[in-house]
Design a protein that fits this description.
Radius of gyration: 24 Å
Largest sheet: 5 strands, mixed
Shape: globular
Structural class: alpha/beta
Strand order of the largest sheet: 2-1-3-5-4
Number of strands: 7
Length: 513
């Protein structure tokens, strides 16, 4: 292994801090422009039902949501405060990683600027979810491992163990990164980093931190595996067809040459020979995901590290003012493009009316229409006789529908909402005095077998291309069994296909159309 470089350039903290602060401020200014994302509506309710684990995710995000709402109130701005702060940390980590690769002051600032302009940081910094902590744990683990390789300081294994342990309380996907990075080190070196007692000790630290989460999964039948099987079935064709486009879009169209240059340099530069395991880890991850039908988005955090390496390469290329202007202009264009696609920078109707944006900026529509859905459900509820309303509940086929009623239902005087979808099923079930249920998007044949009668009450209509458009409303009366027995038949783990309302589980044979 080559000797580590000496005299690394200190991080220019002032400009880096300004870039990171600009990221946080920009995200917070846009935080409430459209509305809650479907997954945020789920997390919001989960934060009131804290547990060591959930069917589809570990507990960290729900815990953070609980703290946010307790400190700052039940608002969208409060909910998105932590993601915006984590985005700033991601920006700061870019020059820190670049420094480990021998970058000078300008290259470090360029790395921070490119991180700011990347789609990864923008998206994960805007929406509260498992991706916030997952991406940050990937980036931090990669930085610490690169630093360990450079310095030979095996005490860094302790820090890696802590980061991995905390990361596993947010999302289990971190295991994929560890396997790929570990394989890269074992095959391409330097393998000496494993020849220390601190390596197995770090595994022990990570295991201890994540043990409550892992134990919860094991004692509940490993529902995460069932969830992953359902997602693989539901998105099989989409994952394959969108894999390459995802590789090219998630960092940003104009920054693709930069991260690709970083990949090539990590594999070929003699002075970066010790770090080539990062480049091979990315390539291995691509192969693994293609084989198992995984989503292209899973590679994004490693692409972020490649982007930082690419910033160092580009800095050496941009030795003239003209070239520097080219790099700055492309990075600026990337920031604008990613902001338009991933952040609510434009009015929601602009996205809906533009044929290109309506296809590419789908994430915007997952943050729209929920209050309107609640209002239309309230019209069905008000149409019931007043004496029947006291015995009525609302059932959403997926957690987003139930979460929307939970958020905006009190405004319309609606009763409590329920859903059998994933862990929402554990947040409560109707009492046996509830003999009428207003349903959203359920399978009429299934519900018809559980109640004395079910009648159609119209469907959800929205001028925006939201995924629940056209979902049917029904009023079902007279449950044939106590709710405690019905609930086991209504529980389901999986993914509801957008626009078709088809529920895909691990046993499904058909994927989403």
């Amino acid at each position: 292994m080559p000797a580590p470089p000496e005299g690394l350039t200190p991080v220019p903290w002032r400009p880096v801090a300004l870039i990171a602060a600009a990221m946080t401020v920009g995200l917070l200014l846009l935080a409430t422009r459209h509305g809650y994302h479907i997954d945020e509506l789920y997390t919001r309710v989960a934060s009131r039902h804290l547990a060591w684990g959930y069917v589809d995710q570990p507990p960290l995000v729900a815990l953070v949501g609980k703290v946010e709402t307790a400190l700052f109130g039940d608002s969208l701005l409060a909910f998105r405060l932590v993601p915006a702060l984590l985005a700033a940390i991601a920006v700061v980590l870019a020059p820190v990683i670049a420094r480990e690769l021998g970058a000078g002051r300008r290259a470090q600032i360029l790395a921070a600027f490119m991180a700011f302009a990347s789609g990864l940081v923008m998206y994960t910094g805007h929406i509260m979810g498992t991706n916030n902590w997952d991406e940050l744990s990937w980036i931090t683990s990669s930085w610490l491992l690169i630093r360990l390789v450079r310095t030979r300081d095996t005490r860094l294994w302790w820090a890696i163990g802590v980061v991995v342990g905390v990361g596993l309380t947010a999302k289990y996907l971190l295991v994929l990164l560890l396997l790929c990075l570990g394989a890269g080190l074992l095959v391409f070196g330097p393998r000496t980093v494993f020849r220390t007692w601190r390596f197995p000790a770090a595994i022990g630290v990570a295991t201890v931190i994540a043990s409550p989460v892992l134990i919860w999964q094991m004692t509940h039948g490993m529902p995460q595996l069932e969830m992953e099987a359902a997602l693989s079935t539901a998105l099989a064709s989409l994952s394959r067809s969108s894999f390459l486009p995802m590789q090219l879009l998630l960092i940003g169209l104009f920054l693709n040459p930069v991260w690709i240059a970083g990949l090539v340099a990590l594999l070929r530069r003699p002075e970066w020979r010790a770090y080539r395991f990062v480049g091979w880890a990315y390539l291995l991850m691509v192969v693994v995901l293609l084989v198992i039908g995984g989503q292209g988005a899973y590679t994004t955090a490693l692409q972020y590290v490649l982007l930082v390496a690419g910033a160092v390469v580009v800095d050496r290329w941009a030795r003239t003012v003209r070239r520097l202007w080219v790099i700055g202009g492309l990075t600026g264009l990337n920031a604008v493009l990613c902001a338009v696609l991933l952040l609510p920078t434009l009015p929601i109707n602009t996205y809906a009316d533009n044929p290109v944006l309506s296809k590419l900026a789908i994430v915007q529509f997952d943050q729209a229409g929920w209050p309107e859905l609640t209002r239309q459900v309230s019209a069905v509820y008000r149409s019931l006789p007043s004496d029947e309303q006291a015995h009525t509940v609302i059932y959403g086929n997926h957690y987003g529908q139930a979460g929307a009623i939970d958020k905006w239902g009190p405004k319309y005087g609606l009763p409590q909402s329920y859903s059998g979808h994933n862990s929402y099923a554990d947040y409560g079930r109707p009492g046996d005095d509830k003999t009428t249920v207003i349903t959203i998007g359920v399978d009429k044949e299934q519900f018809g077998k559980l109640f004395q009668s079910c009648e159609d009450r119209g469907e959800y209509r929205n001028d925006l291309p939201v995924s629940d458009n056209g979902q049917k409303f029904m009023v079902c009366r007279g449950p044939l069994k106590p709710w405690s027995q019905l609930w086991e038949q209504l529980r389901w783990i999986g993914f509801q296909c957008p626009y078709t309302a088809e529920a895909i589980t691990a046993t499904s044979t058909k994927e989403c159309d």
